[in-house]
Amino acid sequence: MTALPDPVIRIHGITGARSACRVMGNRAFALLSPDHAAQSHGAQWFADLIRLVREEFPSCDFKAVLDCRGRVSGALAAIELGLDAVIVDPLPADQLENLRDMARQADSRVMTELPDSDVLYQMADDILPDKELDKRLLAHLAMIAR
Fold first, then answer.
1. What's the confidence (pLDDT) of residue 1?
2. Is the pTM of this model over 0.70?
3. Looking at residue 118, what is its pLDDT?
4. Whether residue 109 has pLDDT greater than 90
5. Cβ atoms within 10 A of the Cβ of 38, count?
6. pLDDT-based confidence at 49, cuts 50/70/90?
7. What is the distance between the alpha carbons of residues 27 and 5, in angstroms, rounded to a whole number?
8. SS3 assignment, position 21
9. How far apart are CA 70 and CA 91, in angstroms?
10. 3 falls in which pLDDT band (50, 70, 90)?
11. Handedness of CA 91, 72, 8, 104 (dihedral sign)
12. Is omega for the bond preceding 7 within 30 degrees of 0, making it cis?
């Protein structure tokens, strides 16, 4: 799997995912789960959210990334559930290579660091209403296009 598309949009739930899809349209991007979501919400929660959004926005071109820091078992589940990428804490080299091998077989990717802050957009969908989410993401995209 190649590098993640830019921007990477961190969401907190379905509201943020829907906003990202409305605004991004058919432009490639990545949806990143909340911090440590595998530990707090579980891989199945994120996989279900992604499935719903892909059904609602079939023309959207995005990669789904689950933050599995704090729970390697969440990464295994996410890979089995078909998510595009996982983020894990640094692991011993042999364990990381085994996990990456499993991911490659499932056309997934294992990362040990968050995306760079210059490509990471924090959606704030846990505190802002829908229309404000769309407006702020549009403004962000306009600013980075300059």
1. 44
2. yes
3. 87
4. yes
5. 29
6. very high
7. 9
8. helix
9. 11
10. confident
11. positive
12. yes
Instruction: Using the predicted structure, report yes or no on whether residue 2 has a pLDDT greater than 80.
Output: no
Most distant CA pair in the chain: distance in Å?
46
Find, among 53, 70, 52, the residue nearest to 61 by Cα.
53
Question: Which domains are assigned to the chain?
Answer: 8-145 (3.20.20.70)
- Identify the CA nearest to 62 among candidates 34, 100, 20: 20
Instruction: Work out the burial of residue 26: count CB atoms within 10 Å of its CB; fewer than 13 is exposed, 13-18 middle, 19 or more buried.
Output: exposed
d(CA 73, CA 89): 12
Between the two ends of the chain, the Cα-to-Cα distance in Å is 29
* Stated length of the chain: 146
Decide: residue 7, CB within 10 A, 0-12 exposed, 13-18 middle, 19+ buried: buried
